[in-house]
Model the fold of this input.
Amino acid sequence: MRNLIVVLGLLLAPAWADEPYKEYTPAEHFEPHVSGDSQLTGTYRYWKDPTKLDLRLAGHPDDSWKLNWKHLDYPFNKEMHAGHLALDRGLVLFNKLNRSGTFKNCLVMYRLNGQYVTTLRGLRTHFPAYRTDLRRVAGLEEVIEHCAALEGETLQNGSYDNSAVSIYIASQSLGMPIKIDVSSGPLREAWKRGERLFHQKVGRNNMSCASCHVGRVGQSLRATVVTSPYGDAAHYPVYRDRFGITSLHVRFAQCSLDLGFNALKPGSPAYTDVEVFLTALTNGYPVSVPSERP
Amino acid sequence: MHTIWRVILVTFLCGSPLGYGYTPGEMVDSKIPTKTLMPKVKVDSGRLEWVPYAMDLSPWPTLGEDDPRAIPRPQLAQYVAPLRGDAVRGRMIAMDTRRGNCVTCHEIPGEDWPGTFGRKLNHYKQMRMSDADIYQQIYDVRITAPRAEMPPFGALGILSDQDIRDVVAYLQSLE
Done:
């Protein structure tokens, strides 16, 4: 008996080992609603209504950031760009995947206020959500990958086709405000983890997301002005001139490499938690897809 | 006896890194010299491609609770006089985005688009700081200014001892 306890103690010792030393940027208070930006940067009043942007700031290199780049979203930006081509591709792919109707049934398989959602309209505003089939919180791109695999198609998270279907589904909710509830349940756990990860210092430069996106919004890294974390999730997947159609997790991967650590796979738990955090910071802002950014 | 088995089960489940079947830093290819990969989106493809990145970022911890590596704690630099730094080489290091990368955050003379994160370094000699203090500031800023967001270049192994000496010599030459 004594030998058994000794052996078990040795086996379990790693589980009780000290936590590795990690650093965190001092935490700010974040509101799970886009209006919290008025406490963080004070620019919310310039861009809160996408139909009434204060255009005196657009085009000026030092002031464009105050509009949070919303002048590149619909309805102000009605120009044709590759995001629209991706939308067309998404429509074609969606119809191909949904030939028998099971793809759409798979997408809507989550509970909202105790009931299963049944339509595509408004679907984008409720993601990330807790999925009863995957039994964890998942973003829209991950669910598309999972449901497409059930149809026998490969649409990897972050790939062009996956982002195209995501843009198509999001466009069915154009103009509707993002609305995820992080007050309780698995989403609240993901929100808290995401907030913690947002402040975790990592990588070659020992910086966190918050190093730039909290303390230094409006200041510039060389020629790039840092943006507010509020309101960003509403325009993803986005067409970026240099990188093509970029989903939110691929954007995280690109930013991870800039910060100086190996990118994680799109769909990984850390990125999903940060996605929940950023989407909650966009609560109340309308979906504006397809959009473009420089 | 039952309690012991329950404790063991719970400990293993909570402490297990295999919860999602995923390894942090998965985007690494040991067959290429720089090991690190970056995502590349290919139009009309259902697959995300990964191409070599310019730098190997494997030594440094990734985001997330799954990566068990610790960050080096704030360290005092072991600086030994005399400086013996080359100011010309120091400027090259400061402008190089893969090494010192100072211009991304600081303004230094002759740079058109400096960053505004950190203070301007234009007339650094007028600050009258000693070589040892500047060396510590670059080696590990967490000792001198704990709330700064500057990378600890020496503690994290970004710049070598001679590199930091060269940058100090460059800064001390800015009238």
